[in-house]
C-alpha cells in the first residue's frame, strides 16, 4: 500500500475529527458577533488573566503533589506504600465538578468542616475562593502527573540512579538532579493534561465564581446572547492550547532518554521518615478521595432510600453503553492515526487530539452545526442520535486514546516490522500479526481512559442525547441545577463507582507493563 | 490494514445508527397519522413535578410526552442547528428573556388558545401567543430576623444604604436571575441608574459573590451577612427542608418583597411556546393548556414552591407566609432585549 494513500487516510480521518473544531475556529467567517467589540476589549483581558492564574496555581500544585507522591512510592518503601501506590490514582474517578462542589459544601464559608473548625478554634476557613478552587482541582487532577511520573521513576532509570548513588549523591540530590530531569517529559505531559482539564472545566469554575475563558464562552453565549463571540473565545482557547502543546514539546526535547529497563529498587525508610511519608500520602489520599466520597455517602444515606438506587439502573446502563461505543470508535480512529504516524510520520493524529481541551458544549455546537448542514444536504437527521453523540465523544477524547497507543507503538522497534516484511508479510498482515498483539495493553489502557471520561462527561451528553435518554451525569445535573445537592449524591456516587473500575484497571495495566 | 479497518469502521457506525432509532428522533421519519399521539418537549426545567405532570397528561389524553432536558442556551443552539428538521414541538425555559430570544430568532410560532389567554394574565404571556408563562418566581430579600427590621428593606434601593455596608450576600453575575433583575432595571430606568444600583450593592457586599442562592441563605444562618438576594423558590425549598444543616438558616430568615421604584417586585417566569416547525401542534397546545389547568397549577405551587399564574390557585403555605406582593408588570419580553445590557452593567459595576 502506497505511502500517499496512508497519508490520505490519516488526513481524512483527522479531518473527520477536526471538522467540528474547524466550525469553531472559523467562526469569524460565518457567525456574526455583535457584542465582540465589548467582549474582546472588556471581558477578554479578565478571562485571560484569571485563566492564567488558575492554570498556573493548579498545575504547580498538581506537579508538587503528583511528583512528590510518585517519587515516594517508587523510590522508597514505607508502611502503606503498596496501598498508596494504586490508591493515589483514585481521585481520577471523581468528576471535577462533583469534587469541587462537595469540597465547597465542606470547606466553603458555611461548610460543615469550616463551621466545626470555627466553633472549636474560632478560625474561619473559606475555601470557596479562587485559590480554594486551585486546591480542589489539583487534588482531583494530580493523578494525571502521578501516573506518568510513577511509571517513569519505576522503570527505566535505575542504572542512572545507581550510578548517582555510587558517585555519592544523596537522596535529595538523586531525586532533583537525576530522576526529575529524566522524568521531565512524562511529568510535563501530565502537567499539560492538568492544564487542559482546567481549561475545559465549567461546572467548578462557575460555582467558585472564577472567570476563565470557558466561563467567558458561557457568559457571551447565555448572558449576551451572542454565540459568535462565544465561538471566538473558543477559538482563542484553541490558540492557548496550541501554545501549551508547543511548550510541552519543548520539555520533551530537552530531556534525557532513559536507557535501562531494570525496575527501580525502593529504599526502605525507617522511623520518623517512614512515618512522615505515610502521613503525607494518607493526607493527600484523604483530602482528594476519601473526604469527598464520604461526604457523598453520608448525603446519599440521608436523602435517598436505597431502593431508589435501582431507579438509576437504566441511566447507568445508558452510561455504560454510550461509554463502550465511544471507546470503540475512538480506539478505531486512534489506531489508524497512530499507526499512520508510525509508518509515515504524519502529524495528523497529533493535531486531531486538540478536541480534548475544548469544552464539551463548544464541541457540541460544532457537531450540531455540521449535522444540521448534513441534514440540509442529504435529509439524514443525525442530531438526537446516539451515533452523533458517540462521534462527538471521539472528537473530544481522541487524544486520550492516541497517547497510550503512540507510546505503545514507539516501544516496538521498527526492525520488527521490517523483519516481518522481509519474510514476505503484507503491511496488513504485519500489523495484524505483529504490531496489534504487542499493542494489547495500550489498547486496553486507551479504551479505559475514554470510557472513564465519557462516564464523567456532562455537557456533550446533555445537549446531544436522544429524547428520554438519561445518563448518570444528567441525573446529577438534574438535582444539582436546582441546588438539591444531597439528592444528587446518589447518582454522583454511582458515577464514581463506574469511574473506579476503569481507573483501577488502568492502574493495574500500567503496573504490569513495567 | 487500512482496507480492512474501513469496512469495520463503517460497520460499527451503521450498527450505531441502527441502535439509535428506538429512542430517538423517529418523529421526523414517521407518517403524520402515526405520530399524532406524541409531543416532543425541549425543556430547561428539571423538576420531579414536571415529570409527574407529563405522566398525568399522558394518562388523561393518551398523548405520549418525550423530553429532552438541557440548559436553555444549548437547547436554542440545538434548535438553530436542526432548523426545519427539528423534532421539537414545545420549548420550555425558566427565563422570560430566553423565551423572548427564542421568539426573536424565529424558533416559536404564534398560537391562539382561549384557555391559555383566560388563565394567564396578559403581562405573563407574549401578546401574539409565541410564549406563555405558567409559573412565577420573585427575586426577593431574605434577611436575618435577629438583626434587621423588615421596614429597613422596602425597596431594592435600600440594599445600597450605608446601613447594609458589608452585610449583603448575593451570588455571581453570571446567574440568569441576577441578570434579569438588572435587565428589568435597565428596561425601566436606563443603564446608568441600574449601574448605580449595582455599584451600591457591590460596595455593600459581605463577601465576593460565590455559590448558589441557597448558599447565600445558609450564610445568613451563620451570621456572615444580614440580607441576601434570592429567588422565592429557593427560599421556599429551604424553609421546608428537614436537612439538619439548614435548620439555623431556617430559623433566622425572614422574607420581604422589595419594591422597584413603586412598580412592584421583580418577577420572572417559567413558560413555553410551540416550536416553529412543530409537527404535533395540536398536541403541543393541549399540553400547554394542561399546564395551566387547576390541577397542574396546584402541583407547581405545592410541589415546587412556584407562584401559580392562574388566579384563584393559592401559593404554597410557606410562600403565603411571606405575605402578599405586587409583581412588576413590565413586559417580560424586555428582560430578553435588555439582558446583554444587564451583563455589561453588572460587569462595569464590578459585580463578579
Number of discrete helical segments of chain A: 26
**Distance between the amino and carboxyl termini of chain A:** 35 Å
Shape of chain B: globular
Bin the strand percentage of chain A.
Answer: under 5%
CATH C-level category of the largest domain in chain B? Alpha Beta
What is the multimeric organization of the chains shown? heterodimer
CATH superfamily of the largest domain in chain A: MetI-like
Distance between the first and last residues' Cα of chain B: 55 Å
The strand count of chain A comes to: 2
CATH topology of the largest domain in chain B: D-Maltodextrin-Binding Protein, domain 2
Describe the structure.
The complex is a heterodimer of chains A (514) and B (352). Chain A is mainly α and 514 residues long. Chain A has two domains: 241 residues, MetI-like fold; 266 residues, MetI-like (MetI-like fold, Orthogonal Bundle). Chain A is built from 26 helices and two strands. Chain A has a two-stranded parallel sheet. The radius of gyration of chain A is 23 Å and the shape is globular. The two termini of chain A are 35 Å apart. In chain B, strands 1, 2, 3, 4, 5, 6, 7, 8, 9 and 10 form a ten-stranded mixed sheet that branches. In chain B, helix 2 links the parallel strand 1 and strand 2. The longest helix of chain B is centred in the first third of the chain and has 19 residues. The N terminus of chain B is likely disordered. Chain B has 352 residues and is α/β, with parallel strands linked by helices.
Kindly list the characteristics that best describe this protein.
heterodimer, A: 514 residues, mainly alpha, MetI-like fold, two-stranded parallel ribbon, B: D-Maltodextrin-Binding Protein, domain 2, 2 domains, 15 helices, disordered N terminus
Brief rundown of the structure:
The complex is a heterodimer of chains A (514) and B (352). With 514 residues, chain A is mostly helical. Chain A has 26 helices and 2 strands.
Amino acid at each position: 500500500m502506497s505511502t500517499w494513500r496512508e497519508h490520505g487516510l490519516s488526513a481524512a480521518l483527522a479531518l473527520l475529527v477536526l471538522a467540528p473544531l474547524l466550525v469553531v475556529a472559523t467562526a469569524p467567517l460565518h457567525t456574526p458577533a455583535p457584542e465582540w467589540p465589548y467582549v474582546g476589549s472588556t471581558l477578554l483581558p479578565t478571562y485571560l488573566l484569571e485563566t492564567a492564574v488558575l492554570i498556573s496555581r493548579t498545575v504547580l500544585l498538581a506537579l508538587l503533589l503528583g511528583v512528590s507522591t510518585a517519587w515516594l512510592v517508587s523510590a522508597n518503601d514505607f508502611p502503606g506504600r503498596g496501598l498508596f501506590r494504586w490508591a493515589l490514582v483514585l481521585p481520577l474517578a471523581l468528576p471535577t465538578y462533583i469534587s469541587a462542589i462537595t469540597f465547597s459544601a465542606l470547606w466553603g464559608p458555611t461548610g460543615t468542616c469550616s463551621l466545626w473548625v470555627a466553633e472549636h478554634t474560632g478560625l474561619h476557613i473559606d475555601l470557596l475562593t479562587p485559590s480554594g478552587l486551585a486546591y480542589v482541582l489539583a487534588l482531583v487532577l494530580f493523578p494525571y502527573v502521578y501516573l506518568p511520573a510513577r511509571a517513569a521513576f519505576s522503570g527505566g532509570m535505575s542504572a542512572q540512579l545507581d550510578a548517582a548513588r555510587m558517585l555519592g549523591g544523596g537522596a535529595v540530590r538523586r531525586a532533583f538532579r537525576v530522576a526529575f530531569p529524566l522524568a521531565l517529559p512524562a511529568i510535563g505531559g501530565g502537567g499539560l493534561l492538568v492544564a487542559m482539564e482546567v481549561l475545559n472545566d465549567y461546572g467548578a469554575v462557575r460555582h467558585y465564581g472564577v472567570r476563565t475563558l470557558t466561563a467567558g464562552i458561557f457568559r457571551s453565549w447565555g448572558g449576551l446572547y451572542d454565540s459568535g463571540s462565544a465561538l471566538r473565545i473558543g477559538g482563542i482557547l484553541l490558540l492557548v492550547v496550541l501554545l501549551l502543546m508547543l511548550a510541552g514539546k519543548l520539555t520533551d526535547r530537552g530531556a534525557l532518554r532513559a536507557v535501562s529497563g531494570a525496575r527501580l529498587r525502593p529504599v526502605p525508610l525507617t522511623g520518623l521518615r517512614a512515618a512522615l511519608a505515610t502521613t503525607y500520602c494518607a493526607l493527600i489520599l484523604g483530602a482528594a478521595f476519601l473526604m469527598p466520597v464520604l461526604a457523598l455517602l453520608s448525603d446519599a444515606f440521608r436523602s435517598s432510600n436505597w431502593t431508589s438506587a435501582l431507579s438509576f439502573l437504566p441511566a447507568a446502563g445508558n452510561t455504560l453503553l454510550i461509554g463502550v461505543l465511544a471507546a470503540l470508535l475512538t480506539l478505531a480512529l486512534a489506531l489508524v492515526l497512530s499507526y499512520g504516524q508510525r509508518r509515515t510520520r504524519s502529524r495528523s493524529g497529533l493535531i486531531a487530539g486538540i478536541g480534548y481541551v475544548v469544552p464539551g458544549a463548544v464541541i457540541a455546537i460544532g457537531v450540531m452545526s455540521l449535522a444540521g448542514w448534513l441534514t440540509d444536504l442529504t435529509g439524514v437527521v443525525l442530531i438526537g442520535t446516539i451515533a452523533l453523540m458517540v462521534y462527538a465523544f471521539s472528537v473530544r477524547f481522541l487524544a486520550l486514546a492516541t497517547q497510550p497507543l503512540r507510546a505503545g507503538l514507539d516501544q516496538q522497534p521498527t526492525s520488527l516490522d521490517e523483519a516481518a516484511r522481509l519474510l514476505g508479510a503484507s503491511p496488513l498482515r504485519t500489523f495484524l500479526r505483529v504490531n496489534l498483539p504487542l499493542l494489547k495493553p495500550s489498547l486496553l489502557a486507551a479504551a479505559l481512559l475514554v470510557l472513564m471520561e465519557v462516564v464523567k462527561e456532562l455537557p456533550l451528553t446533555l445537549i446531544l442525547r436522544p429524547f428520554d435518554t438519561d445518563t448518570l451525569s444528567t441525573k446529577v445535573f438534574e438535582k444539582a441545577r436546582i441546588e438539591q445537592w444531597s439528592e444528587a449524591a446518589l447518582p454522583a456516587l454511582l458515577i464514581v463507582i463506574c469511574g473506579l473500575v476503569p481507573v483501577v484497571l488502568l492502574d493495574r495495566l500500567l503496573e504490569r507493563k513495567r | 490494514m487500512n482496507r480492512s479497518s474501513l469496512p469495520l469502521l463503517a460497520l460499527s457506525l451503521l450498527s450505531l445508527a441502527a441502535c439509535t432509532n428506538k429512542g430517538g428522533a423517529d418523529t421526523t421519519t414517521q407518517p403524520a397519522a402515526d405520530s399524532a399521539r406524541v409531543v416532543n418537549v425541549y425543556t430547561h426545567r428539571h423538576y420531579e413535578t414536571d415529570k409527574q405532570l407529563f405522566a398525568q397528561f399522558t394518562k388523561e389524553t393518551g398523548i405520549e410526552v418525550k423530553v429532552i432536558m438541557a440548559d436553555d442556551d444549548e437547547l436554542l443552539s440545538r434548535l438553530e442547528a436542526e432548523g426545519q428538521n427539528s423534532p421539537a414541538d414545545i420549548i420550555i425555559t425558566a427565563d422570560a428573556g430566553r423565551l423572548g430570544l427564542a421568539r426573536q430568532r424565529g424558533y416559536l410560532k404564534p398560537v391562539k388558545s382561549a384557555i391559555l389567554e383566560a388563565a394567564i394574565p396578559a403581562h405573563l404571556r407574549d401578546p401574539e401567543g409565541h410564549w406563555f408563562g405558567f409559573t412565577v418566581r420573585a427575586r426577593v430579600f431574605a434577611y436575618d430576623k435577629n438583626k434587621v427590621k423588615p421596614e429597613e428593606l422596602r425597596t431594592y434601593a435600600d440594599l445600597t444604604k450605608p446601613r447594609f455596608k458589608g452585610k449583603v450576600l448575593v451570588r455571581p453575575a453570571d446567574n440568569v436571575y441576577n441578570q434579569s433583575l438588572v435587565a428589568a432595571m435597565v428596561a425601566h430606568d436606563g443603564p446608568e441608574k441600574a449601574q448605580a444600583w449595582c455599584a451600591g450593592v457591590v460596595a455593600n457586599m459581605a463577601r465576593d459573590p460565590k455559590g448558589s442562592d441557597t448558599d447565600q441563605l445558609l450564610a445568613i444562618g451563620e451570621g456572615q451577612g444580614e440580607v441576601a438576594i434570592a429567588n422565592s423558590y429557593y427560599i421556599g425549598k429551604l424553609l421546608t427542608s428537614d436537612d439538619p444543616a439548614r435548620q439555623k438558616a431556617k430559623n433566622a430568615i425572614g422574607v420581604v418583597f422589595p419594591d422597584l421604584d413603586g412598580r412592584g417586585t421583580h418577577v420572572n417566569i417559567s413558560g413555553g411556546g410551540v416550536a416553529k416547525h412543530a409537527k404535533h401542534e395540536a398536541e403541543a397546545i393541549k399540553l400547554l393548556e394542561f399546564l395551566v389547568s387547576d390541577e397542574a397549577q396546584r402541583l407547581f405551587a405545592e410541589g415546587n414552591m412556584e407562584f401559580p399564574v392562574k388566579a384563584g390557585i393559592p401559593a404554597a403555605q410557606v410562600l403565603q407566609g411571606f405575605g402578599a406582593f405586587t409583581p412588576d408588570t413590565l413586559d417580560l419580553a424586555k428582560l430578553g432585549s435588555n439582558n446583554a445590557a444587564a451583563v455589561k452593567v453588572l460587569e462595569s459595576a464590578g459585580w463578579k
